[in-house]
Amino acid sequence: MAGRHHLPPNALKRREVPLTRAPLAGHSALIEDHRGLHRVPIPPLAVARRPHPALIEEHIAVQHREIQSLLLDNQRLAATHVALKQVLAVAQQELRHLSAAADEVKAEGDVQVRKVYERSLKMEAEVRSIDAHNAELVQVREDIQKLTAARQEHTAKLQVIDSDLARARSESQKFPEIKAEIETTHQEIQKGRTAVEYEKKTHASNLEQAQGMEKNMISMAHEIEKLRAELANAEKRARAAAAAAAVTPSAGYAAGYGNPEMGYGGSSYPDPFSMHQVQGGGGGDAGSQYGSGAVPHGPRDMQRAYIHR
């Protein structure tokens, strides 16, 4: 609005008409007529230095018209600018309304989505409960079928018992003999129960003995492994001592150097495996106790011996 009546600095330059331009057609004709009437020569320098007042007035009128047209254009542009500002304000206001409406729609959509999600969770829980009830119903139906079959079976048995009872009543004269047979059967059943209990106790004691023997065998195997490790360490120390004696000979080494029976890398320790075999085969009771004369040398041998047993 402040630049409504303001012209740009180059507006007049673009529309400026030079003062030394050729005169218009009408004015040139008048000048020619005037020259023809008076026949007075006009000096060229005076014409060039002093432009004709009509030309100046025409130039001023042209500039005035251009200024008026520029003012009109500026006013139209200012009006257009104001209208565009109003349209922009209306568009911005509509955009705000649309944004607020979009936010409201989004919030409502989120609420609806949340409600739908909660409803789906509830429906899923209900479906699960319905599935559980259906499974229970199927189980109840199966139980009913089983009970029906059992009822039919018991009914058949009851009929057989009724027939047997009728036969027993008809044979009531043989009741003392039947009672004696029943007593005998009870006694046999009692004896069988006693034998079964005895067998159970015997089996339990045998199982405990077998477990104890297995534990003893495992402990013996661990002890044998420890003895082997100790023997290996002793052999290493003996070899180290022999190597040290070879580096620094002593009187004992000099005395043993001439002995042909004494080897350089030999060991005076007995073979643990041969000792273990001798110990296992020497005792007849030990071999009979563990089922064989050889003692297993590892967990796999013990498992094999236990499986073989």
TrEMBL record:
Q: Which spans of this chain does the record mark as coiled coil?
A: 88-157, 210-244
Domain of life, per UniProt, equals: Eukaryota
Sorted alphabetically, the Gene Ontology BP terms of this entry are:
cell differentiation; flower development
Stretch list, region Disordered: 268-309
Annotated keywords: Coiled coil, Developmental protein, Differentiation, Flowering
Question: What family is reported?
Answer: Belongs to the FLX family.
- What is the protein name given in its UniProt record? Protein FLX-like 1
